[in-house]
Amino acid sequence: SCVIVGHGGLALERLAQEKFAAVLMDCQMPVMDGYTATRHIRAGAVAGLDPHLPIIALTAYAMPDDRRKCLAAGMDDYVAKPIRTEALKDALERCGIHTEAAAVTATAAVIDRSVLDPEQVAQLRDMPGSKH
Would you place residue 128 in the very low, low, confident or very high pLDDT band (cuts 50, 70, 90)? Predict the structure, then answer.
């Protein structure tokens, strides 16, 4: 199971309240991006949270420099969007979290619609060549 929040600040709040096996950290979020949130976690700024908690970057940017930027921020691994189940499973296992393939599902299946900007979704749907 997973919990989805709208930005890095909310992720830090939630991590202080609950125990998680890992964090799937979106790099580009409003208010506080994933790089900043990761640096806070690694610095021990979240009371009661193990600063070594596995953090896997989720990003639309897939260039080698983007991967290095994620790792430099303290993230343990990197998965490019669109997320493929097998790539996510592999990243979790590289972080020491062993899963069964059936237990790892695409995040689109559990996304909280309240964190999506309806205006941006509409713009994406209206782009030439998009399939609704």
Answer: low
Spatial distance between the Cα atoms of 86 and 105, rounded to a whole number of angstroms: 9
Dihedral (C-alpha) 3, 130, 70, 55: value to the nearest 10 degrees? Answer: 20
Q: Which 3 state secondary structure label does DSSP give 80? A: strand
> What is the amino acid identity at position 18?
E
Higher confidence at residue 83 or residue 130?
83
Tokens 């979106």 correspond to 26
pTM, full prediction: 0.74
| Residues forming a β-bridge with 57 | 25, 78
Can you count the helices (H) and strands (E) in the chain?
5, 3
Sign of CA dihedral 82, 88, 91, 92: positive
**H-helix or E-strand containing 24?**
strand 23-26
